[in-house]
Amino acid sequence: MDKLILKIKNYFKSKKFKEDLKELFDTVTFVVVGIIIIRFFIAEVRWIPSGSMLPTIKEGDRVIVERFSRFYTTPQRGDIMVFYPPTTELKYTPLKIFTRLTGFLCQDTAFIKRVVGLPNEKFEIKKDAMGAYTVYIDDKPLDEPYIKNRFDFTPCERQDVNCGPFVIPDNEYMMMGDNRGSSWDGRFWGTLKKDRFIGRTVIRFWPLNRITIF
Has 91 been annotated as catalytic? Predict the structure, then answer.
C-alpha cells in the first residue's frame, strides 16, 4: 500500500502528469467549443415536455431544431418554432450565456409553438354560431388543418385571453399551440419578439415509428 501511495504521489509530481492534464484540458475545450458551434450555428435536440402541440407533436417526442436558417430568413407562417417566451427572463451573465450555448444545466424555459401571425398583420379569433373558433388574419379566415379541434379552444370570453383584434407589432410574431384548448401561448402573454427565437423544428426522430419531417 505504501508503494502504491508513493507511486501516485510521484505521478502527480511528474512531467507526464502535466502532459496528461494538458491533454485532458485540450480535449474538454475542443468538445465544449464543438458543442457550442453545433448548437449555435447548426442544430440542437429538444425533448417535448407537454401536449400543447397535439396532435402534431406529442409529449415525450424528441425533435431536431435547426438554427442556421435564422441567419438568412425570417420565420414563416406555419413554422413550428422553439423560443424563449416573454415570461422567461434571460440573464446575460457569463454563466447563463454558457449554459444556453452548451445546454448544460440550462434552466431557461423554452416553448414550442407554431407561427400563426406575422409582423404588421391584423390578428383576431372569432367564434361562430356552432361554437367553433377560427383565426382571422387581415380579416380573412386562416386554414389550419393541423389544429386538434376547432371547438376545443380556450374561450375568448375569459379575461386573461386576448383574441384580438390587434395588429402584430413590427418584428414580432403571434405564436399558438396546435392544441388550442390546452396551450399557454400568445393569447395569454402577447406577441413574441424576433430575437427570442431559438430555431425551427424540422424533424421528429423519436419515437422511431413516428419519424416526421416538418
Answer: no
